[in-house]
């Protein structure tokens, strides 16, 4: 647990569109979660939920279980394996993002584009900062989507 906390409080420096930024990893993960949520809201709209018990179960699955398993599978395992195949991060991230988008088409065909863009962002976060940032960003994204 100490390792996770020390990793999430580490200060990262990065460039975005020619500007230099510095923030703690947990802050970056939260920002990425909000950005990807806003992108989802703009492109697709909300996912309806029914009963309160269904909402609680769905929120737990969306905010805790899905981010952990999906990020381990699509980022840690798949991007790492594809990097070994391609020898470069960009094609590994692209293929992983398309597969992530394809895995989310059960929400509807429009979710493919949205999830692929989200997969690109989370793939960049994984390659740049490790697995914890995309997990927290994914959890934030799903939490915001589930309370809407």
TrEMBL record:
<dbReference type="InterPro" id="IPR003675">
    <property type="entry name" value="Rce1/LyrA-like_dom"/>
</dbReference>
<dbReference type="GO" id="GO:0004175">
    <property type="term" value="F:endopeptidase activity"/>
</dbReference>
<dbReference type="GO" id="GO:0006508">
    <property type="term" value="P:proteolysis"/>
</dbReference>
<keyword id="KW-1133">Transmembrane helix</keyword>
<dbReference type="InterPro" id="IPR052710">
    <property type="entry name" value="CAAX_protease"/>
</dbReference>
<dbReference type="GO" id="GO:0008237">
    <property type="term" value="F:metallopeptidase activity"/>
</dbReference>
<feature type="transmembrane region" description="Helical">
    <location>
        <begin position="89"/>
        <end position="107"/>
    </location>
</feature>
<keyword id="KW-0645">Protease</keyword>
<dbReference type="Pfam" id="PF02517">
    <property type="entry name" value="Rce1-like"/>
</dbReference>
<feature type="domain" description="CAAX prenyl protease 2/Lysostaphin resistance protein A-like">
    <location>
        <begin position="59"/>
        <end position="144"/>
    </location>
</feature>
<keyword id="KW-0812">Transmembrane</keyword>
<feature type="transmembrane region" description="Helical">
    <location>
        <begin position="59"/>
        <end position="83"/>
    </location>
</feature>
<keyword id="KW-0482">Metalloprotease</keyword>
<feature type="transmembrane region" description="Helical">
    <location>
        <begin position="25"/>
        <end position="47"/>
    </location>
</feature>
<keyword id="KW-0472">Membrane</keyword>
<dbReference type="GO" id="GO:0080120">
    <property type="term" value="P:CAAX-box protein maturation"/>
</dbReference>
<feature type="transmembrane region" description="Helical">
    <location>
        <begin position="119"/>
        <end position="139"/>
    </location>
</feature>
<keyword id="KW-0378">Hydrolase</keyword>
<protein>
    <submittedName>
        <fullName>CPBP family intramembrane metalloprotease</fullName>
    </submittedName>
</protein>
């Amino acid at each position: 647990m100490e390792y996770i906390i020390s990793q999430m409080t580490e200060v990262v420096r990065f460039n975005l569109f020619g500007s230099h930024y510095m923030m703690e990893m947990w802050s970056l993960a939260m920002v990425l979660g909000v950005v990807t949520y806003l992108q989802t809201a703009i492109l697709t709209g909300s996912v309806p939920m029914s009963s309160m018990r269904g909402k609680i179960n769905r929120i737990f699955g969306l905010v805790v279980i899905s981010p952990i398993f999906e990020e381990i599978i699509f980022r840690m395992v798949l991007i790492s394996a594809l990097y070994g195949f391609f020898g470069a991060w960009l094609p590994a991230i692209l293929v992983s993002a398309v597969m992530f988008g394809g895995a989310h088409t059960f929400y509807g065909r429009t979710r493919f584009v949205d999830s692929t863009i989200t997969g690109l962002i989370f793939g960049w976060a994984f390659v740049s900062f490790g697995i914890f940032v995309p997990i927290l960003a994914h959890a934030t994204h799903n939490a915001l989507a589930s309370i809407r």
